[in-house]
TrEMBL record:
Encoding gene, per UniProt annotation: LOC117730463
Phylogenetic classification of the source organism: Eukaryota, Metazoa, Chordata, Craniata, Vertebrata
Function: Functions as an ammonia transporter. May play a role in the elimination of ammonia in the gill.
Similarity field: Belongs to the ammonium transporter (TC 2.A.49) family. Rh subfamily.
Keyword ATP-binding carried by entry: no
Topology within the bilayer: Multi-pass membrane protein
Organism (species): Cyclopterus lumpus (Lumpsucker)
One GO MF term attached to the UniProt entry: ammonium channel activity
Domain Ammonium transporter AmtB-like: 21-433
Protein name, entry field: Ammonium transporter AmtB-like domain-containing protein
This protein's UniProt keywords: Ammonia transport, Cell membrane, Glycoprotein, Membrane, Transmembrane, Transmembrane helix, Transport
Amino acid sequence: MNVSTSLKVRLPAFVLVSEVVMIVLYAVFVTYDDNANAKLQNNETKPMENSIYQDYPYFVDVQLMIFIGFGCLLAFFRFYGFSGMVFNFLTATFAIQWAILIQGFFQFYYDGQIHLGVINLLNAEFACAVVLISFGAVIGKTSPVQLLVMALLEIPVFAVTEWAVLKYIRINDAGGTILIHLFACYFGLGVTFVLYRPSLNNGHSREITSYHSDILSVMGTLFLWVFWPSFNSALTFKGDDQHRAILHTFLGLSSSTLTAFALTAMFNKRGKLTMADIQNVTLAGGVTVGASVDMMISPVAAYALGIMGCTACFFGYKYMTPFMARHMRIQDQCGIHNLHGLTGLISSTAGICAILLATEETYGPSMYQIFSHRAPPEGDQKLLELQRLIPGLKPGLGRTAQEQALYQVAAIFSTIAAAAVGGLLTGWVMKLPFLASPSDMDCFDDELFFDMPSDFERLKRFNMHHILCLVYLIITTLNILCF
């Protein structure tokens, strides 16, 4: 191994320092929340009302998306399967630990403590998903140390952006279209712009897939597909809002899947299916319904959004990704701009339209719960009337539909700007020579960072028995987690 890419000192040093820092910060600032604190339990406490029973199923579903869904999806390169799955595992684990602290410091500002519960872990997983989406833009071209540095820097930029948008601009974004998908996309594009490698525009000998790597990758797609309704509905209001979110996500995913199969066959020169389209374009509907996922947009609108998102994603992969690589110095390895950027913009636009069309006639009094910033302000007589109908309804800002729509637009542009600037700065840090960046020749190659098994060179004869064993192992693990 080339000394410049050795992990012998770099990775242990990073991990050791980060763990010491985290131990200190967790010891000083982190305590249990009310649902996990034994001192707050008494004979009046009802254990079955603990938030664990409401939040944990969503936590498990999102974990499966992050560690198995993303992990398998990123193992699509023939000689980069170890790196795709293991770097995802490493980066995700670090990102969640770090996000608990960074997101918690905004709570610390108000409460003097970071109260840890399952809901905090769930929020940290969403922050982790941001990092993993950005990872897709630079997969195959970065070392594990660089990826940890990216997570180290991206989480604070994301947390500050999220806090500023939610506190000062105040938007509706139940499925995380703006604050997760758009942020992650443009942060990743900023990073890959700085890490541009001209020689890779002509392709790389190991930048290829194989029969078995494509099977593994499509398994990741299936995990993401199945659990995406949980991702979109986890943080919505419990009850009918969450119910709509699940229905809309499923309809969007279903229509985008059918459309993806039609498009890939139509535009293939031999009229066949392309695995890359099945792995990525089928997921577009889950993103496209995100901004309006809890609103009364109607089932047919969710279905149509899935078709629109899939179509934009498909043509983005076909035409925009190569154009950006050749003319804009943006080598988007996994096409995150198509699956998260283009679809995110469509979703945000649909959310704005849904806000403009929302009326009490359609929603009833609950409109002021879903669109909380449109609720009357404190002291308004109408607020008192609404609170009699919806106990617990909080005062809002009294915004009109048009005003809220303008704030949504402001959030889109400010999020993209913050993400792009953060990505550029992070890319410059990741470019530092001591972070074990692979050379152009060594990209997309597991051998650079792994002790490979003796049969690695006989990878071509990797048989279906191994794939079936892996499928069985994953399904068994899933059954254990669920039951």
